[in-house]
């Protein structure tokens, strides 16, 4: 597929692009910072500028596409990851503006140019736990896509707005628009760097619901979305199968979630951030779950 990928220079995006390239796709990365990766062409553009998004959506992906002499090819899909990636980086209103206006612009341009598959990054923060002032416990466990999304911060608010925007665009166009509520992204080198601290202090993982998504498995999730057509508008939790601390699920429940209803039995290392919907509808099958052995190695 010929794919326009926004935000591919970021932590999550660069791993997703590497996975897509390995699958044989062509990727044009649209970002404010170029991605230095063989096989990737870059376009420097601002998602918050509608004119720039319309321009790149009708763009060559590289000089080689000039040779055919048949005009600019259409993109088969758009993957939209570009955003201010969390709170406490820019002012709250600027985070909200860039993320919401940027997502509107990307969706508007993609769908007006006839793209029929758009995948966009939402967030675990939509559930209101990650960036809460103080502690917010889940309404129930494991958290699935039906859990209420009532955040208190500008970043998560922007992601909830983006989901509503995407749903509205999908209803008007009938295209496939899939949102990914991405859990805490872990790159391969971060296991040895960070997980010993999680083992020593399990409570430090409470805001991420003790869950994570390996960046390589996030790439797999994007590929699964590209491969499955006809779902219309859907949102999916994206997480690995296991939690990220050296405590059993029962011990975590007893220590941190005594008053929280548990809707079904969980195995000793099962994540509290359910990926069951992605498995059922997309064939999502995360492979990088054995982090204790990575620490030992």
TrEMBL record:
This is NAD(P)-dependent oxidoreductase. It comes from Roseinatronobacter domitianus. The lineage of its organism: Bacteria, Pseudomonadati, Pseudomonadota, Alphaproteobacteria, Rhodobacterales. Pfam families: Epimerase. Residues 3-203 form the NAD-dependent epimerase/dehydratase domain. SUPFAM superfamilies: NAD(P)-binding Rossmann-fold domains. It comes from the Bacteria. Gene3D superfamilies: NAD(P)-binding Rossmann-like Domain.
